[in-house]
Specification:
30 helices
């Protein structure tokens, strides 16, 4: 890991921007109130800024604006209702049931609405006792809403001043993560690669990229100024995003049979040379990402032309000295890798040029895709909420768990003398998530972060008496807390605890010891409640959902394969449809991988058929990669004279994909017979291959290379090989699915 680059990435990221924006938004009015001696009475103002600002997730400007206004309105109502009725305990229990169910269940409408529900629950928790407002409920609610409105004004001003900043930050992050993916790919070319470790890293990286792509698609394709009223800057940003998607596909479709590759070339230095060059390319892509994030021009760290020429000369020299008619197919595989490297090199060089935002780069710009097909769809119809009022819904189960945990937590705060009992409920609300694995992880991070934060707070207050220094430390901890809230919950919890303790020290220093003690006790109680409720009350284990993800991956891959393979059967290729189905296949693959990773964090007794599921995730990843490789040839080559042979292969693979879907649906059918059927051979290709081997044997490599059929044979051999690999992988998937026994929740 290059720690300097990671630091640069963080400094220019939207995470740090968010942390600074929230901190300054809360601190500036607090300093003004402190100057006039009214901070104690107006503490709801900065709290409103922080909470409402926390709902500001990346997305199109109009959606961010609308969600902030809705959050302000909802939180004002919740603060009023809770404040006026908080002295009647049975009413509070009723509110917990209503608010707990409603604000947890609205997560069915996506992350943006879910964040509003979470903040509404936090506002409810803050107003359960009178520590915040005393008897001035309405004034406190208005003050809280005013803090939210202040953040809204700040958001609008920054959006007007820096309209493209968020897009640049997300796009830059996309390139750095893409560079990391290519760096993982490089590991396959070095000696004795750990295939399982590399594969796990690959699928984890693809999940990250999937989420990033979804955010960017929503922002870019839903922003009118970019799609229809584009400027040079917006056109460049759109081009960079589209190029990044194509580059991602190119990296994805460079999948090879690495075992055969090492078997054939481990005794040479060429694989290591390729690995080093791929590492250089990954560094270049990450460098481009840092430049896009920070708004500077990127400069190449390496002479890519010279490095690629070195790889090419090494290949040509080895081919001249070692290639025979017997190992010709191994060299065809190596040639295809070299072609992929050349393509990635040209794309990287182009991306370096685009960071200059030169108008010449965007000349001929044409958004040749149907935008609506690429925008993440999210409906807000009430029917969706009503359809989820069932124990079959994971969202409903989560809402029930949150509500029960809050009821237990509130009861505990009534029966035990706890100075800040509402912290128990805060812990429950922030920890509990629909997935057990995430709840478990956040639980551990919350406890560890709180303990370290309390110890750090004690040491800081014990060793430092200067108020200015304490204030600076508090500001830094606030910035770190809100910067890391979505990327490292442990660091966020540590800094949240530290700045809460320091803020209490400024407001009420004589009771700081009680605050330290309460923070520890309440967090531990809340964490214990959250853990047991998540584990034993209507839990949703990932193995009960994975079959659905498997089916979605199979269907997405089949549609992707059909549109790509149709070109080799003599039909026209619809590029827009190809890109849509490519997106769907990659998303389905990432969802399946994400589901499997969550299974790994669940209790061992809940990890059903793990070996088979791991094998299926691996084969599904390879299947998508091989189809992506096939699509590259479908877009660039035309060999219609072989359409009859390819059409026979396509029909056979389609039958295999249908059989795999039937197995996951519980239909046995003729899946066993299909796994025994071999793929029809391409007779024309076999004749060309035999002829080519004879030419090499009789004429030698130099004269045989003059044959006009050389490139065609190389392309056709690779295409035919991809069909064979797709068929083999599909048969493997059928066999894996036949081993998986049905499991229940």
């Amino acid at each position: 890991m290059n720690y300097l680059d990671e630091f640069k990435k963080f400094i220019s990221s939207h995470y740090l921007s968010t942390g600074v924006r929230l901190t300054l938004g809360a601190i500036i009015p607090s300093l003004i109130f402190q100057h006039y001696g009214i901070l104690g009475d107006m503490i709801a103002f900065p709290l409103g800024t922080l909470l409402i600002g926390s709902t500001d997730n990346p997305g199109p400007h109009h959606r961010r604006r609308n969600s902030l206004l809705i959050a302000i309105g909802i939180c004002f109502l919740v603060a009023c209702i809770t404040g006026f009725l908080r002295h009647i305990h049975f009413i509070i229990f009723a509110e917990i049931i209503i608010f707990g169910m409603l604000f947890s269940l609205i997560g069915v409408y996506g992350n943006r609405v879910n964040s509003i529900g979470l903040i509404a629950l936090l506002v409810f928790v803050f107003n359960i006792d009178d520590h915040l407002s005393g008897d001035l409920v309405l004034r406190t609610a208005v003050t809280f809403a005013a803090g939210g409105i202040w953040y809204f004004v700040l958001f609008m001003i920054l959006q007007r001043l820096l309209p493209y900043k968020l897009i640049q930050q997300l796009l830059g992050e996309n390139f750095t993560e893409l560079g990391k993916l290519l760096s993982i790919k490089a590991g396959y070319y070095f000696a004795k690669p750990d295939y399982d470790d590399l594969f796990n890293k690959m699928i984890h990286q693809q999940v990250i990229l999937r989420e990033n792509h979804e955010n960017l698609r929503e922002i870019l394709f839903k922003t009118r100024e970019i799609v229809t009223e584009s400027t040079n800057t917006s056109r460049i940003l759109m081009l960079m995003f589209l190029d990044s998607i194509d580059l991602f596909e190119r990296i994805l479709n460079s999948q090879q049979n690495y075992l055969n590759l090492h078997r054939a070339f481990d005794d040479t230095k060429i694989l290591r040379l390729f690995g080093i060059y791929i590492t250089w390319l990954s560094e270049e892509i990450q460098q481009i990402g840092l430049a896009v994030q920070s708004g500077f021009h990127s400069h190449s760290r390496h002479d890519l032309d010279e490095a690629f020429n070195k790889c090419q000369k090494a290949f040509e020299k080895m081919r001249e000295n070692k290639m025979t008619h017997e190992n010709m197919e191994d060299f065809i595989m190596l040639r295809q890798i070299l072609n992929s490297l050349q393509d990635v090199t040209e794309r990287v060089k182009k991306l370096h040029r685009t960071t200059t935002y030169d108008a010449d780069v965007s000349n001929g710009y044409n958004l040749a895709v149907e935008v609506d097909n690429f925008i993440p769809k999210q409906e807000y119809h009430p029917r969706i909420l009503l359809d989820n009022l069932s124990l079959k819904s994971s969202h409903f189960r989560h809402a029930v768990r949150v509500t029960i945990a809050l009821l237990i937590g509130y009861t505990a705060s009534l029966f035990f003398e706890l100075g800040h009992g509402y912290w128990i409920l805060l812990t429950i609300v922030t920890i509990m998530k629909p997935a057990f694995s995430i709840t478990k992880e956040r639980n551990l991070h919350r406890i560890e972060g709180t303990i370290i934060g309390v110890v750090s707070g004690f040491l800081v207050l014990y060793l430092i008496k200067d108020s200015t220094v304490l204030f600076i430390i508090m500001m830094i901890s606030m910035i770190l807390a809100y910067s890391f809230l979505k990327i490292n919950y442990f660091i966020a919890c540590t800094n949240i605890t530290l700045y809460v303790i320091l803020s209490f020290n400024f407001l009420n220093p004589q009771h700081i010891t009680d605050v330290l003690q309460d923070r520890m006790i309440d967090t531990i109680i809340g964490s214990i409640i959250a853990y047991f409720v998540s584990s034993y009350i209507l839990p949703v284990w990932e193995h009960t959902q994975i079959n659905q993800y498997i089916k979605e991956a199979l269907l997405a891959n089949r549609k992707y394969f059909d549109v790509v393979a149709a070109k080799f059967a003599g039909k026209n290729l619809d590029i827009n449809e190809l890109k849509v189905l490519r997106k769907d296949a990659i998303i389905a693959m990432a969802n399946l991988s994400d589901n499997f990773q969550k299974m790994l964090s669940e209790p061992k007794r809940r990890q059903m058929n793990m070996e088979e599921y791991h094998q299926f995730v691996a084969t599904s990843h390879m299947l998508t990669s091989y189809i992506a490789s096939l699509s590259t040839y479908a877009q660039t080559l035309e060999y219609s004279q072989f359409s009859i042979e390819f059409e026979m292969m396509i029909r056979q693979i389609d039958r295999q994909l249908q059989a795999a879907t039937d197995v996951i649906d519980g239909k046995i059918g003729n899946s066993v017979e299909i796994t025994r059927e071999s793929l029809p051979q391409n007779q024309q290709l076999l004749e060309l291959l035999t002829k080519r081997k004879r030419e090499i044997k009789e004429l030698g490599i130099e004269k045989a290379d003059q044959s006009p059929a050389r490139k065609m044979l190389s392309d056709l051999k690779t295409i035919n090989g991809l069909f064979e690999l797709i068929s083999t992988i599909t048969i493997d998937e059928i066999k894996i699915l036949q081993k998986i026994k049905p499991v229940s929740a």
